[in-house]
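Exercise (ungraded).
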Amino acid sequence: MIRLEGVKLKLASAAGEVNILRGLTLDVSRGETVGVAGPSGSGKSTMMMIIAGLERPSAGRVEVAGEDLTAMSEDDLARFRRRHIGIVFQAFHLIPTMTALENVAVPLEFARRGDAFERAAASLAAVGLQHRLSHYPGQLSGGEQQRVALARAFAVEPGLLLADEPTGNLDGETGRQVIDLMFDLAARQSSTLILITHDPALAARCRRLVRLVDGRILDA
Amino acid sequence: MPEARLPLTLRLAGRELRGGLRGFRLFLFCLALGAALIAGIGSLADAVREGINRDAKALLGGDIELRLLYRPADPAALQAFAAAGRVSDLRTLRAMAKSPVTGERRLVELKAVDLAYPLFGTMDLSPAEPLHEALAMRGGHWGAVADRELLDRLGISLGQIVRVGSQDYEIRAAIAHEPDRGADAFILGPRLMVADESLAGTGLIQPGSLIYQVYRIAYAPGFDAKAWLANLKQRFPDAGWRIRGLDDAGMGIKRFVDRTALFLTMVGLSALLIGGVGVGNAVRAYLGSKTATVAILKCLGAPARSIFALYLTLIMLLAACGILIGLAVGAAVPFIAAPLLAQGFGLDLALGLYPGALLEAAVFGLLVALAFSLPALTRTRDLPPGQLFRDMVQPSKLRRRWRDILWFALVLAALIALTILSADDRLLAFWFVLAAFATIIVFRLLAFAIVALARGLARYRRGLTRRALADLAGPGAPTRSVVLSLGLGLTVLVAIASIQGNLRRELADTMPGAAPSFFFIDIQPDQLADFSSLVRGQPGFHELESVPMLRGRIVRLKDVAVEQLPPPAEGRWVLEGDRGLTWAAATPPGTRLVEGSWWPADYKGPPLISLDSEVAKDLGLKLGDHLTVNLLGREITGTIANLRDIDWTRLSINFVMVFSPGVLEAAPQTEIATVRIDPAGEVALERAVTDRFANISAIRVKEALASVARILDGLSAAVASMAGVALVAGIAVLAGAVLADRRRRIYDAVVLKVLGATRGNLLAGLVLEYGFMGLATSLIALLLGSAAAYGFVHWVMESPFGFLPGVALATAGIGSALAILIGLAGTWRALGQKAAPLLRND
């Protein structure tokens, strides 16, 4: 599902050039669940961005779902994400001016699905939020917001789900419920799951653990 | 779900709008203001033009008007007129009206009308009474109706007597509405209207007196006017009448409206341009707050194009709202202005909606909104979605794409094309565009220079000055928007104030100083000796100058009939009406010959002409060319012998044409005289002359200038209020820019307070920062505004330009004060902000 070959990333900062990734090589099979751990600044989120086509590597090759991302234009990458990728963020990143239903429907609308709203409603029902369709993010609890984010990520039935510390902003119990839901949905849709986390217990639920330190994979 | 049927972009835009219009108030205000100005000016000008077209017959007083000077038409011509339809015959002249009771007197525009008057429109009197009953002989007196101004001036009321020449009239009513008032272009006094039959009794009808005989015809239904007119011209080739048709009705007003509308539209466009800066600021701030949403949408698979389309749609929807508000206000302008214009100028507007003017304003508004939003929109489109994950590393700098630059250039080109093509005077519009561009570039450079200077100086200063300088140069500082918006507003203000100041100074200082105290007209040649001795005997007398005067119309240039020549671009006025002319043997005093030489004092050859050099240039005439004048139906052809320079601003006796002796002496003529006298002796002189000679009219130069100044003042008020609106737009933009920066200011103030700054320190810092910015901007605005005013006064008005120190000081003061006041108003809260809550929140 994912193939990274010698991926490097250098970025300019006020203090000069920073080496974020120093040559990552990684293979992830379809349906696999992979936990990504490592200290702050080790490059976990950047690796995820490169896999999602949100960042271009300075060197190396990125292949996802059989397609070479390094050769694609910005808009091709957007369309690629629409088809193959769901993302869950630590800070939820729902659009505050849209209802829960509209937030979930957005990627389906971009994909010009005629049944965008029906599918979005079904997806929200799958995360137990069928009674919250017309609520705005500001009217939902943290756990509910993250469930909306999950519903949004799974609504397009992605082959690959990327989750960046999805429980980081939630209390223990709510976090556990969200994680259960996420693993359940991934299993039901046979999605590949890449989960960035600081929590060893959470990492242990993945079939495989990748550890990053200072922009390098320590063990995979 | 009905929403789902809309296109995706509109659906998303609708959802974005749920966030409210926060941050868009200034955006809406700027566009509404600009659109309202342009739509208002356009609608008003259209309503005036349309009103003139609608009322053309009433304004002209007939379907056609034939005007003769000095004499009535001959019986054969009168027969021809009568064959065309209903004819009205009237006479107009200038005369002195006196009150035998109060002894006050005033030059009036006398109009003697027949029973057919008015052929079109209605004459309204106050109290209401049929015109011809009011003018009829009753109780031993002829009746008269007059402008209220005349009654006030003479200190009389209705029912009292006014004397004109040797005829007494009883004032029966005041004129409330005179349908053909607009037909007389140059009015020196209030209107007095009497019955034509009564005129003989005044004794004013003397050879050579300036009396216009006017015939107006209302064509019979189905009458072939074209053929009749062609036949008339053929039958009476030398009649010397001036013919005006419906197309000429209100021509003077139309030209005035075109000119004024153009000028006001330029001011309106300036306001829109200044508003554009506010639009740009608002869009940039709004899109800046949408970074997260844009990144999320991109993460969810939105292509850059969709993001661009979404926010473009949103901004254009809001722009349309702002513009619609402006159009509604603009469309209401004719309705609001109608009573004022009816009262002030006797203009009846054709009230209604003028889609052309509204459409023009809407397109201007949309193009300005688009031009000023595009840079921020393309930046948002290119925002990297990775920003959601990372903010500790600076995002890579976005590079402008060629395609974006091309689009921006296209929008700009459309804006320029519309400005130039929609103007009546395209050359002036072109110069406006050029000046606007130059101004924007100069203020951009100034902002850049201020930032660079502040950054450089900050290194060498300490304490308060250093901080004020650093604030000017700091990241996110509103220096650029403040300099541009305040600068553009002030430039417009300086330009308008300088133009007005110069024109007023020209009127107030130059002319009365050099001008005589009085013009006396209609002096019969046999009265000249008595008149002269009377005037010379008055206390305070300085100088008397008199020359014979006739009026004639130029009918041929270089032996070609004027009608067959293309109308000249300049100097058309010389050919359009009767021109005063005189004859002289010796060179008149003060003559400045620029070409050729004066004829010998005893010259007795064929007619020679001395011509105004400016007129010669406009009409393409040179020494040796022939010029033919129709004088009382007789054509006189002369050869141009020399060209003179005439300074019209001195208001001394000047004639476009001076003939050599031996040609005009025998023609009926009057003398015109100028008198210079101490101001204290003016009233006595006027009384002495007009008491002694009932037919001589006195024009007091001071009064004539005052009435010109009054018209100019009225115009000035309109123009100044437009300039004021441009400045309001500038202030709004300035305030918006300062407010947008408030959060940073409050934070800075709190940190500085923690470090020991007092409120006094903070205040002094703000005054220094905004004062410096305001002063620098004012100085540049002064320079640019004066340059624009110079261009207008020198090239368009052809008047001398003087730099006005008062305007300069006021601009610098207003500019700096505005910047400081608005700067303080925007950050006042920062001074009183308690540190603890803000730090706790952090």
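Further reading is listed at the end of the chapter. For now, observe: The first helix of chain B runs from residue 8 to 17. Confidence is low (pLDDT under 50) at residues 391-396 of chain B.
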